[in-house]
Amino acid sequence: NAREVHAGAGRGDHRAGVRASGAERAACFALDAHRARARSDQAEDRRDHLPKAHRPFFSETDLRPHKSQYWLTSPDKRDAPAEYQAAVENICNTYRDAPTLAAQGTHVVSTDEKTGMQALQRLHETKPVRAGLVERVEFEDIRHGTLCLMANFDVVTGRLISPSIGPTRTEDAFVAHIEKTIDTDPEAAWIFVVDQLDTHRSAKLVELIARRCGLEEDLGVKGKQGILKSKKTRKTFLEDTSHRLRFVYTPRHCSWLNQVEIWFSILARRLLKRSSFTSLDDLKTRALQFIEYFNSVLAKPFRWTYTGRPLQA
Known about the structure:
Layout: H1 2-5, H2 22-28, H3 33-49, H4 57-61, H5 75-79, H6 81-103, E1 106-122, E2 141-154, E3 160-166, H7 171-182, E4 189-194, H8 203-212, H9 231-238, E5 245-249, H10 260-272, H11 280-298
Parallel strand pairs: 1-4, 4-5
Antiparallel strand pairs: 1-2, 2-3
Helix pairs in contact: 8-9
């Protein structure tokens, strides 16, 4: 009968006004025996693939789906670990020796570009924070374009020196920025800590440094021979410690060693994240105003404690 086919058919519904009892519904819609057996067989098949209750699946297979880690090792660290370690230590030693070098008249600056600074204008006014309410920001905005900031962070004083703001970070733009920076103290020695972006090892940069250092040696031809031949030969020339103007390069994938990156995060948090800019000129003006404010009120050297040696667990 229906009760034997469907175990729940015998349970009546004791609520008032219900259209029919469970038994009557089961009698009208009894389960097909063949389909019931098929479903039961499928359930048995699936059960074989399920983990045992007392042996959790993730533990048994040593899976940790809640965790992740970076797996790609820097080519410098993987292919030439000794050179990589020496480069990291050289950066840290440069920071350590910066006060002594500054006393001798050498500027140690950390240089890089802050690209893609967006001039976003909020379509609706931001509601300020008040008692019981957080700041309320509208998500709609008008995009007026982007700018690139080239900055030099003085490792000893903590000030921003000779910032340059323009539309891009081309080879010509970077060379002009470096020359502008040198002109703030043209007779002094300069050490620029930079990453290995192609524009930081360009032919025009080599020509600038050779001219400003008074070097008359033949530089060769780009892509063919001499100092200008390749990025490697140009990098070797630019980091020559005998030059009054020289560069110290971070290993690839190690821009975190560049102190100006820390300052860029300050700029993003204090100015760019919550501001509304009506145009590119407005963004440029307010960025320069922030730098002036930072230099006069907030500037101080970062306390760099990393020595370049692997951290002990």
